[in-house]
Design goal:
This protein is of the alpha+beta class. The chain folds into two domains: 95 residues, no CATH class; 374 residues, no CATH class. It is built from ten helices and 13 strands. The strands form five sheets. Strands 3-4-5-6 form a four-stranded antiparallel β-sheet. A three-stranded antiparallel β-sheet has the order 7-8-9. A hairpin with a 4-residue loop joins β4 and β5. α2 packs parallel to α6, α2 runs antiparallel to α9 and α3 packs antiparallel against α8. It is rod-shaped and about 145 Å long. The model has no long low-confidence stretch (mean pLDDT 88).
């Protein structure tokens, strides 16, 4: 090797070492930054020119990254469901102080009726039974309010999620354009790639998403249902929020590029992500539980109904202790009356707080029509009607099978099955959250091991680069001395 070649080789080595040092410093600075991936200076050499930095690449694993996206979306979905069901469960099922569960209230009402039946001439016990009935109705009213509040909250969160998705898609388009331009011009685009991955990771919290890369660094995004989110341009995600919810309210669907991806009419429904979880909570789990509450209310009205006591009955049955805005008509058997639990109440004629007579619970004719009077003699010790009501609470009756509660059995049995259902849904969602979070943690750790910055490795590499730099400098110094001696010899 001649001196010129040695000098050129040492010079190129110095330049490469400088770039390597810069990359290492960049890694150390970005070690704690979220979404940063380790950068690598790729070295190459050509005969006669020495070593040079051919490219700046980043450490990455598309397989592990896809696993993180999937785990993130699944975890976000289960968390949304679990949080909503926990609110319902805390307010309507497992409050040990208030004991507001429908099952607890039904048992309390049955106990109050039994005490009244044992002393039917005791007005205080009559008032206590009516108060227990009012507590039962209020519990159903409040449970309905809680369920609809959770649905309203889910709808509002869906709107926020849609806004986040549109914002992130806009950012993705900007970064993706910069990557394509940088790839074509040969610039270092590794930081842009980190930004793009970070944006997609944030998107995966809102909905299941996959990214497909194409020539020149271009990428396309798809929802886990197959709907296109981004292809050359960002697609519009739209949603019309509903500000107030009642039991009969049906929430609007989310549309991606005009295609419905949530709701009963969705042709390509989302499978994971916060948006999918909120949609399931709003449109399925809460609706089913509301139907169960409505069936409990219908069962109460049916159990405490009054029948025509005439020698030849001709009048239809009418609501008794429990009534609703549609009275005096009775409700269809084993058929959900949507929102009934939110409107059920105790008849004013039997409520002392409204000027009513609590003894009508014993005597009948709560509706005001004497044809429905059971205690026709006005005997204070009459308890047959009260015993009939207690037996009615234990009697088997049919319930709407679509509610996923017990299709037939006593009213208390159905209420118990409803409590078990909502608790099972909550526990299942909670278990899924724990599992998915564990899976996400492990997937994230595996990706970090591949693409993250290890400070020990970077410092070790920095020492190697420093030694290389020192050796190259020594070569240049030695060549310089040799050239100086050669020139001096020629001059003499």
């Amino acid at each position: 090797m001649n001196l010129t070649a040695a000098l050129e080789s040492a010079r190129s080595s110095l330049m490469a070492s400088g770039i390597q040092s810069s990359v290492i410093s960049r890694n150390i600075a970005g070690a704690s930054a979220t979404g940063y991936s380790r950068k690598i200076a790729v070295l190459d050499n050509l005969p006669g020119t020495g070593v040079y930095v051919a490219a700046i690449q980043r450490a990455a694993s598309s397989g592990l990254y896809d696993n993180v996206l999937t785990a993130t979306s699944s975890s976000a979905k289960q968390s949304a469901i679990s949080d909503g069901l926990q609110k319902i469960s805390s307010a309507t099922v497992d409050d040990p102080e208030l004991d507001q569960s429908p099952t607890a209230q039904l048992n309390a009402l049955k106990k109050a009726l039994q005490q009244y039946a044992n002393a039917p001439d005791n007005t205080t016990l009559a008032q206590a039974a009516v108060t227990s009935a009012k507590d039962m109705a209020i519990a159903l009213n409040q449970a309905t309010q809680t369920v609809q509040s959770v649905r309203e909250g889910a709808d509002a969160d869906m709107n926020t999620s849609v806004q986040n998705i549109n914002r992130l898609l806009s950012q993705f388009q900007t970064v993706n354009t910069a990557i394509v331009k940088g790839t074509i011009s040969g610039d270092d685009i590794t930081d842009y790639l980190d930004q793009r991955d970070s944006i997609v990771s944030q998107l995966s919290q809102e909905l299941g998403v996959t990214m497909s890369t194409r020539p020149n660094g271009d990428a396309a995004l798809y929802a886990d249902s197959g709907v296109v989110l981004f292809d050359k341009t960002a697609r519009t995600v739209s949603f019309a929020p509903t500000n107030a919810y009642t039991a009969g309210t049906t929430g609007n669907a989310v549309y991606i590029d005009g295609v419905p991806v949530t709701g009963a009419n969705s042709v390509m429904p989302l499978k994971s992500g916060k948006l999918a979880g909120l949609a399931q909570l709003r449109d399925q789990d809460t609706v089913t539980y509301q139907s169960q509450l409505d069936e409990i209310a219908r069962g109460l009205i049916d159990t405490f109904k009054e029948s025509d006591q005439s020698p030849v009955p001709t009048l239809p049955d009418v609501p008794g202790l429990f009534t609703y805005p549609g009275a005096p008509a009775m409700l269809a058997s084993a058929t959900v009356s949507v929102g009934l639990a939110g409107t059920i109440s105790v008849a004013a004629s039997v409520d002392p707080a409204q000027g009513g007579n609590p003894n009508l619970l014993r005597d009948g004719a709560i509706s005001g029509n004497v044809a429905y009077q059971y205690n026709t003699t006005g005997y204070g010790g009459y308890s047959a009607r009260l015993q009939q009501l207690i037996g009615g609470m234990d009697a088997s009756q049919p319930f709407d099978a679509t509610t996923q509660g017990k299709p037939s059995g006593s009213l208390i049995d159905f209420a118990s099955s409803s409590t078990s259902w909502i608790e099972n849904q909550r526990k299942t969602a909670d278990s899924n959250v724990t599992y998915q979070k564990t899976l996400l943690d492990r997937s994230t750790a595996a990706l970090s091991n591949v693409s993250g910055v290890n400070m020990d490795d970077e410092m070790s590499l920095m020492l190697q680069v420093e030694r290389t730099y020192s050796a190259s400098s020594k070569i240049i110094s030695t060549v310089d001395e040799m050239l100086q001696s050669l020139l001096a010899a020629v001059g003499n």
